[in-house]
Each structure stands twice: as C-alpha cells, then as structure tokens.
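pasting input
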Amino acid sequence: MKHFNLILLTLLLPVCMMGQQRISGKITDSKKRPLQGVNIAIKDTYDGATSGADGSYSFTTDSKGSQYITATLLGYTSQEQKIFITGPQEVNIIMRNNINDLKVVTISAGSFEASDEGKTTVLKPLDIVTTAGAGADIVNALKTLPGTQQTNDREGLFVRGGTGYETQTFIDGMMVRNPFFSGLPDQPGRGRFSPFLFKGTTFSSGGYSAQYGQGLSSALILESTDLPQRSSYTLGASVIGINGGLEELMKDKKGSFGVEADYTNLGPYLGVVKPKYAFSKDPEIIGTSANFRRKTSSTGMIKFYGYYNRTNMGTIRPSLEYPGFDELFELKNQNVYTNLTYKESLGHDWKLNAGFSFSANTDDINLDTLQKSSPLQGKNQSQLTQARVVLTKGFGQYSVLRFGGEYQYGVEKSNFGGWRANYVDNYTAGFIESDIYITPRLVGRVGGRAEYTSIISKANIAPRASLAYRLTANSQVSFAYGEFYQKPEQQYLRFKHDLGFTRATHYIASYQLVSKNYTFRVEGFYKKYHDLVKTGIDTSTSGTGYAKGIEVFWRDKKTLKNTDYWISYSYLDTKRNYLNYPFEVQPDFAAKHTLSVVYKYYIPAITTNLGVTYSFSTGRPYYNPNLPENKFMSEKTMTYNSVGVSASYLTSIRKAFTIFVLSVSNAPNIKQVYGYRYSTDKLRRQEIVPNMPRFIYLGMFMNFGVDRRQDVINNL
Amino acid sequence: MKRILFSICLLVGLASFSMAQSAQYEGAMTKQVALLDDSTNFNPDKLLEIANTFERIGAAEKTQWLPFYYASYCYVMSSLMQKNNDKVDDLSDKAAVNIEQAEAISPKNDEISCVKSLIATSRIRVDPMSRGMKYGMESASLLVQANQINQENPRVYMLQGQSLFFTPEQFGGSKTEAKKKFEVALQKFSTFKPASSIAPHWGEAYTKGLLAQIK
C-alpha cells in the first residue's frame, strides 16, 4: 500500500507542481515611455506574454522558485532579470537601446561611400550613376557630389581646388594609370570603366587612408563585383554604336567568366547634327573586355579583369595664329589594362589581399596647320606595372590593423617631331594604419605612408589621422588630417629629374545625418599646398597655394512620391602660385560656387523613368594677356548652366528584358564658355566651348537571363 | 524489491513528465498554429505577438525546428504587410535569424527554403531600384532549391505564381504564367499531406483567392 502511494505520488508529481502564479508588470524605455511588443518570458519555458500599447503585460506560470525573466524587443538590448516566484509578482523592466554593428561609428570625413553592404550608406553604387546627362560615366555622375568642379573642358575629376592630375583612381587597390579616354583639345575624355563592373565606390574628397598614395586631392576607390547570380547575355544599339556581351556562371557556381565588345562611331550622328568644328576623322572606338572570377575556398577569391581599347579621331578648326588657315589635330589611342587580385582569410583574424596589374597606353598625335606647314608627329607611350600586398589583422569586435606595401615600375616614352624624352621610374611604398574603436561611438584611425621614387631620388613620410564620434543613432561628427605627396606630372619629369614631391596638407571637419530616406552632410576643409611645380626659366617645386571651403549635401528619397532627389552645394576659396603664375591667384579651373540638383521621377503606370540634372557654377578666371601683370586671371567667364534630361521606357520583347532610352545633355542648349585662348600677338581670341554643346542619345538595350534594365535606367 | 519498485515508480514518473512536456509542446504549437489558420489574426501587430510566442517555445524546445520556422514565418508575413518601409529590414532580419536557427536543426528543408525566399522578396521593397535584381534572383533560386528537395510541395508553385502575379509584365511578370503555377499548386495541395497537424500547411485559400482574381 505504501508502495502504491508512492507510485501515485510520482505519477501525480507533475500535477502537484502546478500551482499557477501570475506575473505582471510594465516595460518601458530608459525615458519611462511604455514599449509595445516586448517579448517577456520565463527563461526556458513557454510561459510569457507580449506587452501591450501601454507597456503592460501579464501571464501565469507554473514555474516556481528561482527563475530568470527575459525581455526582448527589436532595436533594444535583451534584458534578463533573476526573480524568485513564491506568489503573484510584479516585474517592471527598463529596456535600453541597442548599439548594434550597423550603428557603429565609421570613418567618414572627406569621403562618400557607395556600397550595398551598409543599409544607410549615402549612395548606392547605382545611385552614383543615376544622373541625367552623365552618360553612364562614373566621373560625370560624381560631378553632382559636393567638392567637385564642373570642368568640362579638360580631363579628370577636379576636387577642392585641385587639378585633375591630383585625383587618383584605384580598382581593387590597384592604381589605374589612364582612367580616361584620351580626348581632343578642350574636351574631356570619358572614363574608361563601366559602372556595372563595381559593387562599391568610394569617392574621397580628402583625408583618405594611408593605403593609397600619389593623389594630392582625391582618391576614387572602386571595388569590383564578385560572382554573378546567374549567366546572362546583353545586346545594345544606339545612334552612336552597338555592343554585346555575355557573362557565364560556371556549373559549380564557384567561378564565372565574361566577355564584352563594343563599337562606337559618331559618323552617322554627325551627318545629322553638325558640330561646331568639323571632324577630319569621325570619332571611332573599338572596345573589348574580359573578366574571370574564381572562388579558391569559402573565403578565397581570384579575380581577373582586362580590357583593350582603340580610338581614332581628328578635328579641323580655324587657326588662331594664322587667320584663314585651319589646324588639324588627329589622335590614335591604344590602351590596355589588366588587373589580377587575390584575397583570402588566413585564420586568427588575419586577411590577405594581393594584386598585380599592368597597363599600357599609346597616343599617336598628328598636328598640322593645313597648307601652311608640314605636319608634326608626336607619340606618347606609358607603361605601368604594379604589385601590392596588404595584410589585415582584426582585434576585438571592430578594431583592425592594416599594413602592406607596393611597387610600381613605370616607363614613360615621348617623341615629338623627332625630339625624345624618355624615363623609367621605380616607385616603392609601405604603409601601416590602424582603426581603433575606443568605444562603439568613438573611433580613431592613425597611420602613415612612406614612399620612395627613383626618378627624383626622393622619399617622404606622410602621416594621416581621422577621428569620428557618433552623436546619435543616425548622426556623427568626423575630423581628418593628413599629409599627401605626389610626383610632379609626367610632362615636367620628362625634362627635369631633380624636382621634389609636391605636397598638400588636409584638415577636414564634417557632420552627417544619415537615415534610410534622408541624408544631410556638411563639411568644411582647409588644404595647404606646398612645393607645387613652378615653370619659367627654371622648373622647380617651389609653388604654393591653399584651398578652403564649405560643402553641403542633401538627399531625400521619401518626401515626394516616386521621387528621389539630391542637392549639392560647394563654396570654394582657392589660390595658388604655380606653373607660370606671377603670384597666388584663383586658378582657371576653380569656380567659387558650384551647385548640382539631381531629380528622378518614376511613373509606374507606364514603367517610365524621368530624370533631370541641373548644374551651375559661377564664372572661372581666365588669363587675358592684354592686361598688366597685376591683373593676372582677374577676368571671369560667364556662369555655367547645364540641364540634362532623360527618359527611359521598360518593356519585354519575347524573352528579352528591353529598355528604350532617350537622353539629352544640355537640353536647352545654353551657351557655355570655359575660357578664352589668345593668339601670340594678343590680337585675336577664341572662346573655349564644347564642340557639341547638346548631345541627343537614343538607344535600345536587351538583356537575356538577368533583368538589367534598372541598371540602364539608373545610368541615364 | 523496494528499491526496484521505487525505480519503476521513478521511471514511470519521469516518463509521464516527459510525455507531459511533449504534450505541452504539441498543445502549445497546435494552439498557435490554429491562430495562424484564423485569417482574423493576419495583421502585422497580431502576427508579431504570435511570433513572440513561437520564439518562447523555440527557446524552450531547442531541438524542434517548427517553432523557429513559424516565428520566422510570422515576422516575414508581418514585414510584407507593413505599411511603412522603415520596419521592413528589421523584421526581415528577425525572420532571417529565426529561419537560420530552424535550418540549423533541419537542413535541406523545402519549407524553410520557401520562407527564406519570402524574406528575400520582402527586402526588395525597401529599395527596389538597387535591390530588385539581387534579392529577386535570390528569392527565385531559393524556390528552385525548395522544388529540388520536394517536387510535391504546393507552396513552391504558389510562391512562384505569386511572384509572376505581382511582377508587372514589363518586368517579366505574367498573369497567364501565374495562373498555370497556381493550378499546379492547387493540384499539389489536393494531394499534399502535412507530416503532422502542426507541420506547414498554409497557402491553399490564398492561392484560390489569387486565382479568382485572374479568372
């Protein structure tokens, strides 16, 4: 009987343990505001509840004695509290905001980062090319960001009082020697790279990482895409050419390869729309590219990218020196670029990035004052071979140490009417840099770069430092300081080898507020130039200068329906005494005020996108040789205004995703004058104006396999 | 003898305790799944409340994939129903965390692939311009994966049809193709036997609803 009782007791044990107790309470945040939707539970049991609109909750539980009560809610740190259940109980819990990885402060002074990784980056990769009138050119699109100049009469990206030469372009860490097509006089060369090659773009207008060198003003850092999701094929036709390509994802999904080819010829277009100056040879471009990507392990990847371009063009324009005669300018360009990179995690928080690149560029130039002189031939050749290794070691949650080195072997050959000036340069650099998180709110980056270049037999050490502090979840302040060195331009090194490095010192302070739909940034900078190239009787690096200014950026993706717009304003005060300048003066590539407005509107009913880009800048100084020397660069050109518009219509033709595109640069055909050129006797002058002030582009693109129409639209 | 008897008693007691535990699981799950089958509960806030309960069950039953699966399902459905885009990413993240826990317990599961596909779909909405391609393809390939695991799962065809149904024709959508998928889905629903009363069995009524809109 005793045993039977025992059995009964054992069987009933679970039942006996039931004796339900009510747990209730209120959940608030640290400011005592009630929190709804909090998941409250007795740890490791089903018992719990969800808090209501007033933050209160209640539930019953069978648990007794010492227990843990947990509370979890999105965006808040989970709370765990020990309780002792003997009877009904009230448990009030205060939740604290979560500082998660996404809200950790990042180094941001001086840089605009476009990437898919972060949810609140200022711009997405596609956004940077979402610009009517930019014509699928990364650099043209970047000209809608603050800090840039609307210099459309010369090659390159002019940033914060710097020349185009002061901006360097990097692909996967490797320098690109000729990122722009060789252009005709007074016309900018387009960028050579399709925006679709890159998953991330960082445009740094100053104070950038010690990983990069040889750019006094700015670095454009491009990161190539990884494996495609699936195979695809493209075909395109427009008023100026045709293109086609394929990208194959291998069967094991661990590798891919792609080839592309395009042919552009402006001949038919020029038959309809007459340019200001006639072409002796209609611009013709043949381009091919190939890429290969292979995963070598779960963390390792090898990437290859290479292209070959060939351009041929020539103009005839009235001679300024010899009235009644014409000047012929013909250019043949060939360009090869290859880039091979490898990255792998080595374990224990070590990462390796290594790369090798080779590029070669040849410009054949033919100059002739027709019927007046015999032609003059010139040839410029450059080759650059580069190797680079970077090691990264992670510490704790966020801090990292990076160090590495690079070597560049450059060959420059030039031949002008039989006159030769060739040289070879060996450049070596090493850098070390650390991002130190003092707290998740405060990060410091300190580092430096040491360089030696054989052509001028000089070395330098460039310290750099940044600091960023997060004020609230969405806002932060940043500061940056850095020394930047660059070799003088090739055209001076050819003739003189005992020059020094040119140098700039950057100081930057910025505030930014970034949420999903809005971005606001304001940045102030001061840049001091030392040792700029001075020409004259004896070329030397004794020039000086400065640039200072304030820039504002505002982007809004939400307020207006189906609309995304951004506004950039830059104020720039810069003077320099370099080249043949007699004293410090505002240079001819710098405008005091620059404004850009980019506006995009999507009409879902007819699947059509409209875009408008407006750019403005105040007049730029130009040199009038008829004025006394103390009036050097005192005259200014007219203000610059440009309106680009675009429209695109999406449809499907059988199995192909198809898009029709119409885009017009400088649609109202506003007159633009970039400067004036004077004859040697100072009697005649010629306006520097675009050869085709308005350009109308009509095209059709078809994609098979992958819908890339959105990319194309975003490219307008 | 006493000792043996005592041991037996103890064993029986333990068995009844664990049976109670399992019965508790079945009971709690049946109750919650029934809530999901009731269309009046299909609103963004109520779904989050149900998700909380599934999360609690999941936290207590560390070897069952269904609580995590349903928690994820509730989060992604709530995300898809949100009027405001601001919450979509956070809810999708929560859904993703839960479905990964489910997948760790039950790898190569077609139902799990279906929910993962839904999560990718929900993320597109935040920024269709730059996310459409990446997540659209991810969503589609997850459904292909699910179909490879189990060709009889009606939800795969239903989700493929849904994607065709809501995608504008200019972007490759098609109501007639969607209709074909829905018809296959309904045929599969008619023969589909859920592994248990609490195994995933949603979607039939919804499929019929969408199909009715085409006819």
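fyi DSSP finds five helices and 41 strands in chain A.
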